[in-house]
Amino acid sequence: LFGESQSRVVVTISTEREDEFQNYLINQNVSFTKLGDVFGTDVVIDDENFGSVEDWKAIFDNTLGEKFDEL
Could you tell me the end-to-end alpha-carbon distance of the chain, in angstroms, rounded to an integer? Predict the structure, then answer.
């Protein structure tokens, strides 16, 4: 799970459990949108490469702490 706000969450789930997960969301009346598929090591959206998942994770994990360090 990756938090986007109090009302949105990005979920990564294995291909084997995708249908089960989508059916669960439907049964719970939870609206959702499938954004894409995860594979490899880079973030690629509409054939545009945005860099490595590792780099994005480091930004996500460290940005808030770095801002506090600047104070």
Answer: 29
The three-class DSSP label of residue 41 is coil
CA distance 54 to 7: 25
Collapsing DSSP to helix, strand or coil, 3 comes out as strand
Report the pLDDT value the prediction gives residue 25, as an integer from 0 to 100. Answer: 95
For all residues of the chain together, what is the average pLDDT? 85
Rounded distance between C-alpha atoms, residue 60 and residue 63, angstroms: 6
SS3 content of the chain, % helix, strand, coil (to 5): 45, 20, 40
